[in-house]
Amino acid sequence: VHDAGHEMRAVFLPDPRWLAKIREYAPDVVTYSVMTGTHRQILAVNRFLKARFEFFALFGGPHPTFVPEMARE
What we know:
Elements: E1 2-3, E2 6-7, H1 18-25, E3 29-33, H2 39-50, E4 56-60, H3 62-66
Parallel strand pairs: 3-4
Antiparallel strand pairs: 1-2
């Protein structure tokens, strides 16, 4: 999808090709929708990806809205 010169692609987990897709897409920004109860798993996925790729991570959803300090992790 192109809008204002930007391209967006979505990867939903579980997807057996999720890591290959991220490698192929080489995103500048990775966003997460985070609910309380899934926040630790999302942070682990983000740390895993940050160790392999360079991108800006953006957290949204209920958990970071009410616990914004989670983004520092």
